[in-house]
Amino acid sequence: MLAETGDTSASIQVIAERADVGFGSFYNHFDSKTELFEAAVQDALEEFGQTFDEGLAGIDDPAELVATGFRLSARMAESHPELMQVLRRRGLAHIHSHNGLARRALRDVEVGMASGRFTPVDPTVALSALGGTLLSLVELRFARPDVDGDEAAVNLAEMVLRMLGVPPDDAHEVARRPLPDLA
C-alpha cells in the first residue's frame, strides 16, 4: 500500500486484510502503524542499497561511487515516487540509519577519506551533509517539476565532491560520468 499510493492513513484493519493476516497478528510483529511503515521504508532502502552494491561493484574510485550513488538515489524520485514522498516527510530519520543507502554512503565516504581521495573530516558529519543535500534535491524534484532533475543531481553531485575535497576540475568530470544501468 505504501509503495502503491504512499498513503499512511490506512487503518490497521485494512493493512491486516491486505496482508491476509488476522488483525491481532499485526501486533505480534509491530507496536504501531508507524513502526510498520518505518520498517517498510527501511526494507525498501536496504533493497535499493543491495541493488546499488551489485550495479556499482566495478567502480573503484570513491568519488565516482559517491557521485553515482547520489545521482541514482535522486532518480528514485521518478522511479519510486511513493517511497520518495515518504522520505520527503521522514527522510532525516534515515540519514544515519545503520542499513540501506545511508550505511553504504558512509562506507564510501570512509573509504574515500582513508584513501586520501577525500579530505579527512568526521565521516558522520560528511554523511549529514550528503544526506541533507540529497533530501533537498528530492524536495526540489517534487516542488519544481520544471527543473531538470538529472542536471540538478549532476550539479549537486559535483558540489558534494568538492565539499569532500575533490579538486574542482576532477569533481566536474567525475560527476558527469555515465550512470550504470541497474535494471
From TrEMBL:
Keywords in alphabetical order: DNA-binding, Transcription, Transcription regulation
- Residues annotated as DNA-binding are 11-30
Q: Specify whether Ubl conjugation is a keyword of the entry.
A: no
Report whether Transcription regulation shows up as a keyword of the record. Answer: yes
> Per its UniProt record, what Pfam families does this chain match?
TetR_C_40, TetR_N
Instruction: Please give the superkingdom of this protein's source.
Output: Bacteria
Molecular function GO terms recorded: DNA-binding transcription factor activity; transcription cis-regulatory region binding
- Which SUPFAM superfamilies does the protein's record reference? Homeodomain-like (SSF46689), Tetracyclin repressor-like, C-terminal domain (SSF48498)
List each copy of the HTH tetR-type domain by range.
1-48
PANTHER family hit by this protein:
HTH-TYPE TRANSCRIPTIONAL REGULATOR BETI (PTHR30055:SF234), HTH-TYPE TRANSCRIPTIONAL REGULATOR RUTR (PTHR30055)
What is the protein name given in its UniProt record? TetR family transcriptional regulator
The scientific name of the source species is Streptomyces katrae
